Amino acid sequence: MSKTVGFLGLGHMGGPMAANLVKAGYDVRAFDPSPAAREQAEKDGVALVDSGVAAATGREVVITMLTNGKLVRDVYAELLPVATPGTLFLDCSTIDVADAKAAAEAAVAAGHRALDAPVSGGVTGAAAGTLTFMVGGEEPDFAEALPMLEVMGAKVVHCGVSGVGQAAKICNNMLLGISMIGLSEALVLGEKLGLSHQSFFDVVSTASGQSWALTTYCPVPGPVPTSPANNDYQPGFATALMNKDLGLAAEALRANGIDGQIGQLAAEIYRRFNETSADRDFSAIVTEVRARSGESPA
Ligand code: NAD
Predict the structure, then answer these.
(1) CA angle 124, 226, 243 (to 5 degrees)
(2) Ligand 1 pocket, 55 CB below 6 A?
(3) If you measure from the C-alpha of residue 44 to the centroid of ligand 1, how many angstroms do you get, rounded to a whole number?
């Protein structure tokens, strides 16, 4: 018998995730205050209720997919007192490690169980059920959540105790932001020195400068036809989201006394870029490097 699920947050990610659970036979009761999100979820066959409390009451598992840590904590404060004792709270939002730990502690203090389970894979991964989940929390709770996570994702990694799932997420995205900026600087330098994008790709993709940013997500059109650069930098992964994740990483660096100079700088570079380009794919940072170097578009 599959678990009964309360699902809060039916946005770009949560909507298709909830729909996949329904398709797999889970009894899902969902809430989102946004009329557009509700309309889409209804089309996808997700049963809606009128409040978070109604979604969470009497459920075995409560899943949240929300925009930020404050919202997750506020929603937990509302739901924890009404949920059946022992409910498994599963937060899939990307939030600060400290908020994730605080939310989980509040759940445990109220007699429940909690996992942080942020994702990567974007909207396409959410729709296809091929997300990667990075999970923090106790092993028995992880084991209980696993079948559900495997419906929504293709890869599920138990990273450690509470908050460590979020740690994996921000460490990965900090590295991705840094490597995209570094790659963009190298590409623009290559352009200036007369190196074609294809020659750059042919050499670097099999040399020591190789990265996912280059081989899967090349920020200039041509070498990787599926990358957003070939589609006028439509996201993909929007700059607004990279800016958010780098902000969380920069805060975690500061809070933990890590001398993360490049991580801080990457956060600052994307913070500035976000002021003009929040809706563009984050790989469009290459156009910013070019503009700031006084170079014309390639
Ligand atoms: P979104 O803004 O599309 O969805 C958030 C939804 O939460 C909205 O529909 C909003 O109406 C709803 N909401 C707000 N208050 C609520 C409440 N009290 N109860 C229930 N629902 C409420 O955001 P998204 O793109 O789906 O992202 C969700 C999370 O996933 C974020 O933390 C984001 O960083 C993370 N994430 C997003 C992507 C991506 O590509 N979009 C990729 C990986 C991780």
Answers:
(1) 60
(2) no
(3) 17
The enclosing H or E element of 67 equals none
Q: What is the pLDDT of residues 127-154, one digit of tens each?
A: 999 999 999 999 999 999 999 999 999 9
In 153-208, which ranges are continuous DSSP H helix? Answer: 164-192, 197-204
- Closest by alpha carbon to 156, among 106, 251, 90? 90
d(CA 151, CA 24): 7
Cα 94 to ligand 1 centroid, rounded to whole Å:
9
Catalytic pick from 43, 101, 169, 244? 169
Model pLDDT, residue 169: 97
Does residue 51 have its Cβ closer than 6 Å to ligand 1?
A: no
Q: Which two tokens stand for residue 228?
A: 């957003």
Instruction: Kindly state if the Cβ of 10 falls inside 6 Å of ligand 1.
Output: yes
DSSP 96: -
Looking at ligand 1, which residue's alpha carbon is closest to its atom 4? 11
- DSSP for 230-290 reads GGTT--SSBHHHHHHHHHHHHHHHHHTT---HHHHHHHHHHHHHHHHHTTSBGGGHHHHHH
Q: Is 169 a catalytic residue?
A: yes
Protein residue closest via CA to atom 1 of ligand 1: 11
**For ligand 1, atom 25, which residue shows the shortest CA distance?**
12
What is the pTM assigned to this prediction?
0.94
Exposed/middle/buried for 240, CB within 10 Å: 0-12, 13-18, 19+? middle
